[in-house]
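hiii, so i know i said id send this last week but things got crazy w the move. better late than never?? heres the sequnce for the chain we talked about at the cafe, plus the structure i predicted for it. fair warning i was half asleep when i ran it
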Amino acid sequence: MAKAVMGKRSKAILSLAAFCVLLPLSGLAKYAGDVFALDIWKLTIPLDDNTDDDGFADEVKMPVLRRFEDPDFFRMSKMGDSIIFKAKCSDPTTPGSAYPRCELREMKPGGETKASWGTNDGLRHTLAATLAINAVPAVKKHVVCIQIHDAEGDFLQIRLEGSRLFIERDGAEPVILNENYKMGEFFSLIMVIEKGSILYLHNQKQVMKWKTERKACYFKAGCYTLSNAEKGDSPDAFGEVEIQRLYVVHKKEEAK
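okay and structure toks below
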């Protein structure tokens, strides 16, 4: 497991991110969109129900996303403090993937334009989240809850395989987060990307600092169920992820 010493500036960044991700809800939540801000996301849903009849999963964008819910795959929890993302193994997939997802894709504020940034573009990119993986398929027990993509595809995933929770990295060894993860157990994560490095904290402990140069990047969050009938799972087998807090900010790097 890679570890690095944090300086005062890194500690300040991470403390700020942790504070923001733990801000309490203001008032009573009525919709999933009241749990955390959805204005910088679009949602891929495991359903092909629009007029294009293309066989692929549909998307929901702002402003519709603000009050969108579906009891089968995207809804507020009974406690009203989290969003449930669910995808069954038989659900429609996206082009280029054999697996279903109910997943947010990062957009620029307003939700009209796709987000696109670099790991060494002069900005500091922060994602902080509190989440739990509630279910995996019975046969191939694999679910992804957080991703970073570039123009070529995902290069970082937060992934559960059975009880093994880890960071999968393109071209690098995985970073183990928990060898004995229990379903429904909430954990927090913070990623700070700047100056060609990704700093990762798991439950407030730094576990990785990874040097990687990437362009055209964006975050994804939700439930990417990595199984289907060809892997031996039943059509009704599913993955489920519960996200309580999700916070993203892009800021100019501080001058030395």
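btw The domain at 8-23+41-48+56-250 is CATH 2.60.120.200 (Jelly Rolls). thought thatd interest u
miss u guys!!
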